[in-house]
Specification:
The chain has 166 residues and is mainly α. It is 85% helix and 0% strand.
Length: 166
């Protein structure tokens, strides 16, 4: 497909995010199982529920555009999740694994924040006001999740460090 307009680029970027979110839906249950910290497990479970809603928002945007979200594989997210999968297979103590899971999750969040910020701006320029609101809602959630992960990391990273010193 030739991308010769901002509208086509907007749709392609939305498809990329849709693929990314669908991949995240498959990865999060595995992260829940591997996390040992109860707050981290709960955070991943909460993000799973949020991600389900974010997929629905994207589907609403595609419906309004008369387009399908299918047909594109987000290779960036695929790579980030593959790195996270490798972390889950490493031989680590629980606290260190939790710290590594948070690092992997934050890379995913930052990727999403960049993607949603971009498509929200495109939607603004294209006058897609309903989409702007939906995309901003997701962007806000992604930012909040990143802040929660940072707060958890501040405690879990110290626990991981203490394991080494013990």
């Amino acid at each position: 497909m030739e991308i010769d307009s901002l509208r086509k680029l907007y749709v392609e970027e939305l498809k990329d995010l849709y693929s990314a979110e669908k991949q995240i839906l498959q990865a999060l249950p595995k992260m829940v199982k591997k996390a040992s910290n109860p707050q981290l497990k709960a955070g991943f479970e909460e993000h799973l529920r949020q991600t389900e809603e974010q997929v629905k928002r994207l589907e609403r945007i595609f419906e309004a555009l008369g387009k399908s979200g299918r047909g594109k594989k987000c290779k960036g997210m695929e790579g980030l999740l593959e790195e996270g999968k490798e972390v889950m297979q490493e031989d680590m103590d629980e606290e260190t694994r939790d710290a590594a899971l948070i690092a992997a999750a934050q890379r995913v969040e930052h990727y999403e924040i960049a993607g949603y910020g971009t498509v929200r701006t495109y939607a603004q320029l294209l006058g897609e006001d309903a989409a702007v609101r939906l995309l901003q809602q997701t962007l806000d959630e992604e930012g909040a999740t990143d802040k929660k992960l940072t707060a958890l990391a501040e405690a879990i990273n110290v626990e991981a460090m203490e394991e080494i010193e013990a």
